[in-house]
Amino acid sequence: MNPTGGGDASHEPCAAERRHEHVFGQDRRRPGERQTRIVIGLTAVTMLLEIVAGIRFGSMALLADGLHMASHAAALGISAVAYAWVRRHAADEGYSFGAGKMNALAGFAGAVLLAGFALLMAWESAERLLAPVPVAFGQAIAVAVLGLVVNAVSAVLLTHEEEHGHDHNLRSAYLHVLADALTSLLAIGALLGGMLLGWRFLDPLMGIVGAAVITRWSAGLLRESGRVLLDRQAPQPVLERIRAAVESRSGDRVTDLHVWRISPEGWSAIVSVVSPDPLSPDSYRALLPEDLGLTHVNVEVNACRHGE
Question: pTM score, two decimals?
Answer without folding.
Answer: 0.66
